[in-house]
Design goal:
This is NmrA-like domain-containing protein. This protein has 320 residues and is an alpha/beta fold. The chain is built from 12 helices and 13 strands. Helix content is 41%, strand content 16%. Helix 2 links the parallel strand 2 and strand 3.
Length: 320
């Protein structure tokens, strides 16, 4: 593997968010000098954010405080690093245009990884609320391609811990109820966030991934809802009471719920009814993360469920 540098300075935007936290810790674990650009903490903010920033500092992370519309602050921060990874969610994902403008002025970024970490936005055709999100990601992709800054697009597919938590509700040991979207037979790639983040650190410093698209389809993480539930039943010794949400119902909710509540319905339809994560073949120039890093021992779905058995996480929010 050809590295950009043995240890690159990595700046993360969105580092205090759900996935961003994994990304920060993965960069630290790989011994890269790690930086986080975060909004200034105000008295009305959630105290947990302040605690998280304190934890980051204890790990040796450098914190830059600023807003994304403070162009000079962005340029100043970016000039101190080699790689920029963005983990912003919706709706601030379009603020990446400001980051791209700052990177162009700074002129020193060796790799830009925009906020993807989901489905392949150029190859799926979801319901309108989710399509609108994909269209925004496409705008960022095209801007990255035109910027002249070396980039890598990461298609990480499904956040495994998030959706295991969302689907199985392991934190509620008194409930044996589970909701199945569609028939439960669509395959999806249920990848543990820790692995996604650690793979992404490798991708960020690998010359083979420059200006490419890399897809995270981990063979032992490809599963259906029905198989996931069956696996959980065997591990817990519980029989789950299954309730099905039809395609028609999901489509209707995506059309009638207000934004942003309609977006999760469209995502569930894309993942679990249409099975869009696995509905396309890899192209010749697509990069397969497992082929690039065969030495990395990723977490299988079986192992992920074992983690949940020992230490069920707190409930996740309904909005993705």
């Amino acid at each position: 593997m050809g590295d950009i540098e043995k240890k690159s300075k990595i700046l993360i935007f969105g580092g205090t968010g759900y996935y961003g936290t994994y990304q920060v810790k993965a960069c630290v674990a790989a011994a890269h000098p790690t930086y986080v650009y975060a909004r200034p903490v105000k008295p009305h903010h959630d105290p947990s954010k302040l605690d998280l920033l304190k934890e980051f500092k204890s790990l040796g992370v450098t914190i830059f405080e600023g807003e994304l519309d403070e162009h000079e602050k962005l340029v100043e921060a970016i000039r101190q690093v080699d790689i920029v990874i963005v983990t912003l969610g919706m709706p601030p994902i379009m603020d990446q245009l400001k980051i791209i403008a700052a990177m162009k002025e700074a002129g020193n970024v060796k790799r830009f990884i925009p906020s993807e970490f989901g489905n392949e936005c150029d190859r799926i055709s979801p319901l309108p609320p989710y399509q609108a999100c994909c269209d925004q990601k496409k705008i960022i992709r095209r801007a990255a391609e035109k910027s002249g800054i070396p980039y890598t697009f990461v298609v990480a597919n499904t956040y495994g811990a998030y959706f295991v938590n969302y689907l199985l509700r392991p934190y509620d040991k008194k409930s044996n109820k589970v909701t199945i979207y569609g028939t439960g037979e669509a395959r999806f790639s249920c990848n543990y966030e820790k692995d996604i983040a650690e793979y992404t650190v490798k991708v960020a410093v690998d010359s083979r991934t420059e200006n490419g698209l890399i897809i995270y389809r981990l063979p032992k993480c490809i599963i259906t809802q029905l198989d996931l539930i069956s696996m959980w039943e065997k591990k817990t010794g519980r029989t789950m009471e299954k309730a099905y949400v039809s395609e028609k119902k999901l489509i209707g909710l995506s059309e009638t719920l207000p934004f942003p509540d309609n977006v999760p319905m469209a995502i569930l339809h894309s993942l679990f009814v249409k099975g869009e994560e696995m509905a396309y073949d890899l192209k010749e120039d697509d990069l397969d993360v497992v082929e690039l890093y065969p030495e990395y021992k990723y977490t299988t779905v079986e192992e992920l469920l074992d983690i949940f058995l020992v230490d069920p996480p707190k409930p996740v929010l309904a909005a993705f």
